[in-house]
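Continuing from the previous page...

OK, I double-checked the sequence for TetR family transcriptional regulator against my notes and this is the correct one:
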Amino acid sequence: MVEDTAPARRGRPGHDRAAVVAAAIALFNRKGYDATSVGDLAAELGVTKSAVYHHVESKESLLAEALDSALGGLEDALVESREQDGAAHERLRRVVRRSVEVLVERQPAVTLLLRVHGNSPTERDALRRRRRIDAELAALVAAARDEGTLRSDLDPELVSRLVFGMVNSLVEWYAATGSLDADTLADTVVTLTFEGLDAQTPEPS
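Thanks. Re-ran it with the corrected sequence; updated structure tokens here:
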């Protein structure tokens, strides 16, 4: 077997592709995608526009990579759920937890995803992927209801929207640099979702 000895493509000194994408996500969140130009990104990085184009093909390709980062994490969580054994209820718990973890790990990209409106082919594709994710989450809630481990008097689609709407709302206030760590955050969301706020009354002995 002959090994490929071709050298990996290197970026310009000081910035690799990941740094360019991260800076673009921050700018898109701060200024809005439509209002951000490649020139703005170059100024943010302290390089020329040609240096930015050395790493990426276009502004839309940056948006696509950012949205794929957020969506890919959520899709992977569902793939893991499909591949795991066990009751739908347990798989749903794991998906809720993993969704919180993805949001914490990729908060800027998830924030951007939640702000797209379908103004470009890339945004419309992202919205289609979100709808598929939402439908699969609702189906998982329905499966847990049908097996008798969740309440049967609530609409699965509504439950799914409310639960994952709560998860999505974390982008508005959660700060990774704060005192609340990701594990505690995920534990709290899962506990609130599946056990509620009522104090647990010990059963009589």
